[in-house]
Amino acid sequence: MKIGIVCYPTFGGSGVVATELGLALAEKGHQIHFISYSQPVRLDFFSGNLFYHEVSVSDYPLFDYPPYELVLASKLVDVVKYEKLDLLHVHYAIPHASAAYMAKQILASQGIKIPFITTLHGTDITLVGKDPSFEPVITFAINQSDAVTAVSESLKDDTYANFPSVRKEINVIPNFIRLEDYKTDENKCHKKMYAPNGERLLIHISNFRKVKRVDDVLRVFDKVRKVIPSKLILVGDGPERPVIEKLCRELDTCNDIKSLGKIVNPEQILGIADLFLLTSETESFGLAALEAMAAKTPVISSNSGGLPEVNKNGFSGYMSNVGDIDDMAKNAIRILKDELVLNQFKLNAYEQAKKFNIDAILPMYEKLYKDVLKASVN
Fold it and tell me: Which residues have CB under 8 Å from 26's CB, separation 6+?
């Protein structure tokens, strides 16, 4: 199959999943065309089956905000027509689904049929999508999609709740990881760089938005380190960074915290961690938690959104109510204080991650593609 994948090229989960999906499909022999305004961060090599098409947005003085949706639709028309794509797979509803619909109609007027699949990832439904000004367009684009997927049962339920006029069947296909990318043994020697005196090493990865509640991460860590000698690694960056820096000074924890900024491939740093903290207000899935478990790092998380579908309470880690930093700290200490308990949780986390290996998920997408193509012919 020749598949066009539309995604945001950033460090967020939707872009990572879309890119990794494309790479896996290319390895299976499919021809994959990435279409975005910048090269996806995880797309760091090309092969005979991988292509990238940049969407160029003109800086015309008439527009305060460049019309990305329109130039994206035009680019989709161009790529579909001249690369002879079989279908489009757009990740994140805004504005990719509506642009795909527009491209589909333009191509239909030229006698070219192109079905498109929309994958919902989270904040396009639970945060941005709640803006009433977007509701009619998102609802229409979802209903006009040839197929729709969501990355968790929780997100599927949220979509129907937030968009009551959506009538399209939503297929749940969870996010995934490649287990072979998470080799940890060779990284153990590097732990001393961050925990020179044998301290426990905790880690958090996110885009530092308010919804991630990174301040809770620091408060949990502060409680843990007062009981167990510990260090904290922060990976990522975003609007809450100044708040976090101020809080670490107030808590007097800055000397025990290392901020690494944005990292394209976090596997190595996850491989040396003892515990992963994810205290989000909501997570449609929790890809960062899954990546941690694939690196044999147990997870302390909130119990919101799709996290209960990823983190198995009492097995791969523990879950607490959003904002309950006392319970999160208690659970973290419960795991970290005993080496045998910690090692068992590490093994359990890896077992849980196996359920989401790419080998189990990729056939779901391939079947969906075939079903959509078959239906579009009839």
Answer: 32, 47, 49, 50
CATH 3.10.450.50 for the 179-354 domain, yes or no: no
Instruction: Give the mean model confidence (pLDDT) for residues 352-359.
Output: 95
Q: Which of 301, 307, 297, 290 is nearest to 348 (CA)?
A: 297
CATH architecture of 2-176+358-377: 3-Layer(aba) Sandwich (3.40)
pTM: 0.88
What Rg do the C-alpha atoms of the chain give, in angstroms? 21
pLDDT digits (tens, 9 = 90+) for 281-305: 989 999 999 999 999 999 999 999 9
Mean pLDDT (whole number) for 114-131: 80
State the CB neighbour count (10 A cutoff) for residue 161. Answer: 11
CA angle at residue 166 from 305 to 128, to 5 degrees?
Answer: 50
Domain locations in the chain as residue ranges: 2-176+358-377, 179-354
192-223 per-position pLDDT tens digit: 889 889 999 999 999 899 989 999 999 999 99
